[in-house]
Design brief:
Blueprint: H1 2-8, E1 18-21, H2 22-32, H3 38-67, E2 74-78, E3 84-89, H4 92-95, H5 102-114, E4 123-128, H6 132-140, E5 145-150, H7 152-157, H8 162-169, H9 190-197
Parallel strand pairs: 1-5, 4-5
Antiparallel strand pairs: 2-3, 2-4
The protein binds zinc ion.
């Protein structure tokens, strides 16, 4: 149930998790130009350029993906200084894996590179607003900063209806198009009890 509850809540963007629409970043940074000193201005301009370059790179990955016959989506994960840790594109049709979205692939690559399932303090850049699955993965990976470029509406306009799933999540379970029913058994909670009692467990 924890998973389902989390997925139900993913539209309520946590205040500690920053999801930037790229034009908003530009607007806010422009608004702040007058109240920071010159050095900070230079840093902001440098960061702004790095962010712009990384978003452009996600689009290059998306174009590469289309050429390969995969979906038009690219993703990059960097450290807090914008050094690239992982980059990937959509590989659903290549791998026959409906979960092989660009963000999922990049998260897996970054975790493998760092030998860690926790990507806190890392930054994710994606060519398009994350779908609910990828947004959930971003939360599970503890990533706090996300920059995206195209919107879910842009994606819907070319046939990728992420927006449909977002709308489904706003409905009560019984009103969704998915047939999902709760079934319990005598040992339903055994593994949960085992987990609760386990010493030295690696929590995530
Ligand atoms: Zn996705």
């Amino acid at each position: 149930m924890e998973n389902i509850n989390n997925i139900n809540n993913i539209n309520n963007i946590n205040n500690t998790q920053n999801l930037y629409y790229f034009e908003e970043v530009n607007k806010n940074q422009n608004k702040n130009q007058n109240i920071v000193n010159k050095l900070q201005n230079n840093d902001n301009i440098n960061n702004k350029q790095k962010i712009q370059d990384l978003i452009a790179k996600t689009h290059e990955l998306a174009e590469e993906s289309v050429v390969k016959g995969c979906g038009p989506f690219g993703c990059i994960i960097t450290d807090e200084n914008f050094n690239i840790l992982a980059l990937n594109h959509n590989r659903v049709t290549e791998l026959n894996d409906p979960t092989a979205h660009a963000e999922i692939n990049a998260i897996r690559d970054a975790c493998k590179a760092l030998n860690n399932f926790n990507l806190s303090n890392k930054i994710l850049f994606t060519s398009c607003e994350p779908c609910p699955m990828c947004l959930s993965a971003i939360y599970w990976a503890k990533i706090k900063d996300v920059y995206y470029s195209n919107t879910r509406i842009d994606a819907r306009n070319i046939g990728f209806d992420d927006d449909f799933i977002y709308c489904e999540l706003e409905k009560q379970i019984e009103d969704r198009s998915l047939n999902i029913k709760r079934v319990s058994s005598d040992n339903s909670l055994t593994s949960f009890e085992m987990w609760k009692l386990k010493d030295n467990k690696l929590s995530y």
